[in-house]
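Dear colleagues,

As part of the handover before I leave the project, I'm documenting each prediction I ran so the next person doesn't have to rerun anything. This entry is a single chain, and its sequence is reproduced below.
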Amino acid sequence: MRKLITSTFLTLDGVMQAPGGPGEDDSGGFTHGGWSVNYWDEVMGQVMGEAVNTPFDLLLGRKTYDIFAAHWPHASEEDGAKPFNDATKHVVSRSRPTLEWSNSFLVQGDAAEGIAALKKEAGPELQVHGSGNLIQTLLRHGLVDEYRLWVLPARHRVGQTPLLGRHRPRRAEARRQQSLHHGVVIGTYEPAGEIVTGSFALD
């Protein structure tokens, strides 16, 4: 079974909406599009480069697919376009969109069942970038095998916070962490079963 990995840019208050640029996602009146851009540095580029230089398929929600499809086919290899253009793209959508980006396929039927079936197929890891609505489905059905969280020192108070939804409580174990000089923390986590509670109270 292949791994399903989410890669998510987050503010301190859990907002993941529109990190890449103004107009990327203005839904709900969000006005801070592009909030991650000025934190980007060489180290972040290296970490992202490592992630996309291993074989992978993309699993994307419709909105993120549209954003990627409008950008990557027209970007240069120097800007990192080749891994995304070469990857097979699996798209989750309630509608039946025309998928014109090369190697793009619609996940048919029930999303959770379709994704579970994809995980059972032979192939490279499945990477989810952005795709907040899709992430909520993945969390509800326990389909995520690894979380890659890029936490940036910003706070918006408004915006989409899919990771903070009403999901089943679960533990996670840290596999890798990097703290960068400008306050960005990049962490890799894996699900680790049920929450274990305790008490500091003395008998």
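The first strand starts at residue 4 and ends at 11. The chain has a mean pLDDT of 92.

All the best with the project,
I.
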